[in-house]
């Protein structure tokens, strides 16, 4: 099997699963219970929170455990906007954010907020000048992702943070789902960020929202008041501890994984170029791009048919983000970058974990060449 779809979900690290299995049998108490077993679970929960803060080198940030980045984006963006609506009603984001960000902003527009959607160029980058000009006295929140999940384009987080802080009172939120453990980011320059465990070799339905301790956020799930009142519902302590383990292992292997992903991506780019200029179009930008994502379009082959053909050979890649893969039509991200429909609807995304070797790259290219020879050209 060749698995090049890690941006959708990564394989679970055995040590993460080991942590979960051990603790799910050991921590049977509800961390909200006042008895000994409950207090034991609560102690493990808080230790996991502190370990994550150390691993990510966070300063003066609170951590809320969630079901993943989608929930974290909803809680962070909507929760902050609604809690601070009297301060201002202007928000800023980009046209290439994940659906769990864009749809929240679209919903907030129905609540009376005004949203500026920053366009991107054909490299997937916003204009920093346009960002600065878009900031207003009533701007309360700017949400811009760290790494694009379809193209791998890296947003300049440090410059974005500096512009926001120098020209407004707005806070800076970032969806770092494809950035944590894959590119270097100073997380303390960001007021609030989200991430998912299953993107860092952890378990699904696990994630977090980290935010500056002084921020006021309106909870989106009401009930028992868990997670300091921001996210009601019984904490899954073993799952939260497994997230702490996943981050510790993933961040600890960053340099090695980054180097291997870069080597593999460079090899694949060189090999794919051999198809010829009239056969292939690279979508991932050459500069300011994560080595963990490579997006391209074979101009004369339908992507869905090619993905299916590869899957029959146990080669797993994707077309769009997993959240959008079952919807018809072109990728809105690639359309926002200016690609015509014949390219944006036939894009192939390869995404790596940094544990793959060149031999897998060679096998992939061999199978790709064999399968394209069998397929009908368009």
Structure explained in plain terms:
The protein is of the alpha/beta class and 378 residues long. It folds into two domains: 128 residues, Aspartate Aminotransferase, domain 1, CATH 3.90.1150; 239 residues, Type I PLP-dependent aspartate aminotransferase-like (Major domain) (Aspartate Aminotransferase, domain 2). 39% of the residues lie in helices and 15% in strands. The chain is built from twelve helices and twelve strands. The strands form three sheets. It has a seven-stranded mixed β-sheet with strand order 2-8-7-6-5-3-4, with helices on both faces. Helix 2 packs parallel to helix 7 and helix 8 runs parallel beside helix 12. The longest helix has 20 residues. The mean pLDDT is 96.
**Quaternary status:** single chain
**Structural class estimated from helices and strands:** alpha/beta
Mean pLDDT over all positions: 96
- Number of structurally distinct domains: 2
């Amino acid at each position: 099997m060749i698995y090049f779809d890690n941006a959708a979900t990564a394989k679970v690290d055995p040590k993460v699963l080991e942590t979960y299995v051990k603790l799910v049998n050991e921590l049977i108490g509800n961390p909200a219970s006042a008895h000994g077993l409950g207090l034991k679970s609560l102690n493990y929960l808080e230790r996991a929170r502190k370990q994550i803060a150390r691993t990510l080198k966070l300063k003066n940030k609170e951590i809320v455990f969630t079901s993943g980045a989608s929930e974290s984006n909803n809680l962070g963006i909507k929760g902050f906007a609604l809690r601070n609506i009297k301060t201002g009603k202007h928000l800023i984001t980009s046209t290439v954010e994940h659906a769990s960000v864009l749809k929240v902003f679209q919903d907030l527009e129905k609540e009376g907020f005004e949203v500026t959607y920053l366009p991107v160029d054909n490299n997937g980058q916003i204009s920093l000048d346009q960002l600065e000009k878009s900031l207003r006295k009533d701007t309360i929140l700017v949400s811009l992702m760290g790494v694009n999940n379809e193209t791998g384009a890296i947003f300049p987080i440090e410059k974005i943070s500096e512009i926001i802080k120098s020209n407004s009172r707005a806070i800076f939120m970032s969806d770092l789902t494809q950035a944590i453990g894959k590119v270097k980011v100073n997380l303390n320059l960001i007021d609030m960020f989200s991430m998912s465990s299953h993107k860092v070799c952890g378990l699904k339905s696990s994630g977090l929202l980290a935010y500056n301790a002084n921020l006021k956020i309106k909870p989106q799930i009401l009930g028992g008041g868990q997670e300091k009142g921001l996210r009601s519902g019984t904490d899954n302590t073993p799952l939260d501890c497994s997230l702490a383990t996943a981050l510790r292992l993933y961040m600890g292997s960053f340099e090695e994984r980054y180097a291997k992903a870069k080597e593999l991506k460079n090899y694949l780019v060189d090999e794919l170029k051999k198809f010829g200029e009239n056969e292939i179009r690279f979508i991932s930008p050459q500069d300011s791009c994560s080595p963990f994502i490579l997006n391209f379009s074979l101009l004369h082959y339908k992507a869905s048919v090619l993905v299916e053909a590869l899957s029959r050979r146990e080669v797993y890649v994707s077309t769009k983000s997993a959240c959008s893969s079952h919807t018809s039509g072109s990728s809105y991200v690639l359309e926002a970058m200016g690609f015509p429909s014949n390219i944006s609807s036939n894009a192939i995304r390869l995404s790596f974990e940094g544990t793959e070797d060149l031999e897998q790259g060679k096998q992939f290219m061999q199978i790709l060449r064999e399968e394209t020879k069998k397929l009908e050209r368009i």
